Amino acid sequence: MDLFGEGNQWAIIIPIIILIVLSVVMRRRRPAEKTEAEIVGSLFMDVNENLRLVERFSYQGRPRKFRADSWKRNSEKIGFLSQSLRDTLSQAFTLVEEFNRSIDAAKKQRAAIYLTGVDAHKLEAPLTKSKEGLEEWIRSNMPLDTGAGRRGCMGMGG
């Protein structure tokens, strides 16, 4: 029995499998945020996604876990934010982690009964307040470029 005989199909299949595995691994790895703007942007994306999940949270079927990756990576790096915003973010992501533990327990036991005590709408207020605080930080620290002084297409106009 010749593994690599007849057309060398394995010579084509193995590199394809390796590329697929590498692309999945690379897609899952998020680079660590380095600047304040990157940290705020990452937190903002997680808060926004969590607000969407709260709106669609269902006790029927398989609920999706809330996102807390950005918080786990950056919770020690947010000293530049106001104390009230840090407290609000901490409260929101503490609740997120509690909800995720309940979701994990329900999935592990394959029983939605574990979710009956979970009120996903409790997350709405701290997440909304977090979103507002992050938006305020973005407005005051990352002014929009209005495009004044820019030239038109091909450097013409003005």
Question: What does it look like?
Answer:
- The protein has helices spanning 9-28, 36-56, 69-74, 83-109, 124-141.
- It has 158 residues and is mainly α.
- The chain has a domain at 35-141.
- Helix 2 (36-56) packs antiparallel against helix 5 and helix 4 packs across helix 5.
- It is flat, with a radius of gyration of 23 Å.
In short:
The chain is mainly alpha-helical and 158 residues long. It contains five helices and no strands.
| Biggest sheet descriptor | none
Our measurement of the CA-to-CA distance between the termini, rounded to an integer number of angstroms, reads: 73 Å
Shape: flat
Beta-strand segment tally: 0
Mean pLDDT: 80
Name the structural class.
mainly alpha
Uncertain segments are: none
Rg, alpha carbons: 23 Å
- The share of residues in extended strands comes to under 5%
User: What is the ordering of alpha helices and beta strands?
Assistant: HHHHH
The total of helices stands at 5
- Which range best describes the helical content: under 10%, 10-25%, 25-40%, 40-55%, 55-70% or over 70%? 55-70%
How is this fold's topology laid out?
Elements: H1 9-28, H2 36-56, H3 69-74, H4 83-109, H5 124-141
Helix pairs in contact: 2-5, 4-5
